[in-house]
Design a protein that fits this description.
This protein is α/β, with parallel strands linked by helices and 361 residues long. The chain is built from 13 helices and 14 strands. It has helices spanning 30-33, 52-61, 83-100, 114-126, 132-137, 182-203, 215-218, 228-233, 252-256, 288-292, 300-312, 333-336, 349-357, and strands at 2-7, 10-15, 18-24, 36-41, 66-70, 106-112, 127-128, 150-151, 155-162, 222-223, 226-227, 237-243, 277-283, 317-322. The protein has a ten-stranded mixed beta sheet with strand order 1-2-3-5-4-6-9-12-14-13, sandwiched between helices. The longest helix has 22 residues, at 182-203. The protein is globular. Mean pLDDT is 88; it is low at 138-142 and 295-301.
């Protein structure tokens, strides 16, 4: 059962007391005039209420332009079922929304924590290559990549992740609350599936379903019937927001898709407009030959991590680093960057605003 709520010019539907869809109430026909679908995905053990503040800010700032759907098919304990299972559910959910809103033309994703991996899996399922007749009818020299390649039939625009463990969680200092202690990290690698079930195996890259490579390794290429990299490539923008410190769940290296030697010096960076943004850079796509010049040691964890960095770096990324080291809630940075709890973590509002101000419509 759904109820419609209206607050400060923002309309939303409510299901089981949490928001599902958010749109502008500026005009009576606003829910059908917005043609840009924004899918917001929560993290592990989360719910669609986690993005409530972000969804409302998107709609207030971009009225009649965006229709926001906060994913609800993988909430709470269902987030332990595995990145692939959650990705399949999300893909189905997106298609359901598109079917309900036939006016939609564009699509973007904004995903927090493990939700970023789920979204990457889902777009691999939603990838739609150009129809054969469109390619055959092209006579102007347009390449196949420039034709109507879509995500679920919609034009892909922004793919934004927030504190997402793109490189997994098992490398050194990738889970900061383990303090970088090798014994703790090895123990976590052995025990994680008891706590976070199948999702934990995927995050620590020790899954071996039917002898296949770890899922995160499969996701740096087109694998089987999932077009993971082809789908990620066709988005106009790919953005990774990261916490440089005080995120005890997801490390800076994994969330920003960087090697240790690539982590920037951020302490002297000043941004008056967005006080908690401490560094920004646009990273161009790096080809395989360039990546192979970077040496790695013999540690198997590092080798696998290097493969993930190299794979994802074949695409261009905007990287935005945030720090809440001056905030009272700094120890909850993993939630603050999402403004998961508006009453407690309003400090992260400028990061969400940065996201909106740079959003490609």
């Amino acid at each position: 059962m759904e109820n419609k709520a209206v607050e400060n010019g923002v309309c939303s539907t409510e299901s089981v007391n949490v928001s599902c869809d958010v749109w502008s109430c500026k005009n009576s026909d606003s829910s059908s005039s917005a043609d840009h679908l924004v899918i917001m995905v929560h993290g592990i053990l989360g719910s669609n209420a986690d993005w409530k503040f972000g969804a409302e800010q998107f709609v207030r700032t971009l009225p009649d332009k965006v229709f926001v759907h906060c994913s609800e098919k993988n909430m709470f304990r269902r987030t332990l079922d595995g990145v692939d299972v959650m990705g399949d559910r999300l893909a189905e959910e997106v298609l359901e929304v598109i079917q309900r809103k036939p006016n939609l033309q564009k699509i973007s994703f904004v995903a927090h924590s493990v939700g970023g991996l789920v979204a990457r899996y889902a777009i691999g399922r939603l990838y739609r290559p150009p129809k054969k007749e469109n390619v055959e009818d092209s006579t102007d020299g347009t390449s196949i990549d420039d034709l109507k390649t879509t995500i679920g039939g919609l034009e892909p625009m922004n793919f934004i992740t927030v504190a997402t463990p793109h490189l997994g969680s098992r490398g050194n200092k990738q889970v900061p609350f383990l303090f970088g202690v090798t014994a703790f990290e090895k123990a976590a690698n052995l025990l994680i599936h008891w706590i976070f079930k199948r999702t934990g195996r995927h995050l620590f890259l020790n899954d071996d379903d039917e002898g296949k490579p770890p899922l995160l390794k499969r996701m740096i290429e087109d694998y089987g019937d999932c077009f993971f990299m082809s789908a990620l490539r066709i988005f106009k923008r790919r953005v990774a927001y990261s916490n440089v410190c005080y995120d005890h769940i997801v490390g800076w290296r994994t969330s920003s898709i960087r090697r240790t030697i690539e982590l920037p010096k951020w302490e002297d960076y000043i941004n008056k407009e967005y006080p908690h943004i401490v560094y920004e850079e646009c990273c161009k796509a790096c080809d395989t030959e360039q990546s192979e010049l970077i040496s790695t040691d013999d540690d198997s964890f590092d080798k696998l991590e290097e493969e993930l960095v190299t794979g994802l770096s074949r695409l261009s990324w905007e990287k935005v680093d945030a720090s809440f080291h001056t905030c009272r809630q700094r120890f909850a940075a993993h939630s603050v960057i999402q403004v998961k709890d508006q009453s407690m973590h309003i400090e992260g509002a400028d990061v969400v605003q940065h996201m909106i101000d740079h959003f490609l419509l």
